[in-house]
Amino acid sequence: MRLGIDLDGVVADFNRGWIDRYNRQYGTELPFDAVQSWDAIPGLTHFEDMGVFWDWARDHDGHTLFHHLETYPGALEALEALDRLGHDIVILTTKPDWAISDTYTWLGENRIKTREVHILEDKWRVDCDVYLDDAPHNLRNLVAKRPDRMVCRFVRPWNSPIGGANDIIDWPEFVQSVASQGR
Hints:
It is a single chain. This protein is an alpha/beta fold. The protein has two domains: 2-13 and 72-181, Rossmann fold (3-Layer(aba) Sandwich); 15-68, no CATH class. The chain has helices at 14-26, 41-44, 50-57, 75-84, 100-109, 136-145, 171-181, and strands spanning 2-5, 88-93, 116-119, 130-133, 150-154, 165-168. A six-stranded parallel β-sheet has the order 3-2-1-4-5-6, sandwiched between helices. The longest helix is centred in the N-terminal third of the chain and has 13 residues, at 14-26. The N and C termini lie close together (11 Å).
């Protein structure tokens, strides 16, 4: 099966990455679990809006913030297992233009086995059998535009249940859900 996998918030721990850098740069102690809603960053930081945040995220040690992200526990092992089972890992991610190169570098450095990467806003345009995402707007669009496909919501504090999406709490559960879909 073709598995449409999001990166940030699903494979890459975006919030831990930016919070760690923010705390080090500004001497703050923002907890890693501070993000409880989508686009919460301006309310948690001194950034007046997301545009100012994205300007800050552009340059960190000669790379973008995206270059420095760690993976969530179990993500790489699960993707490896899904690949071994013969599934196609299709990366579906949204990034600013300035982060595209670092996104490809990050995929390579983390040895994510994919032959297909799409950096786009409308993830539903890429035909997959199963989708895994955490962004509320992406999940709503996937459910609406791909009602005949399995859409999985990676449960995070910044998203809520969405009718038509299957809730996934961790990577082993996703692997099991894919296995049951393939039967």
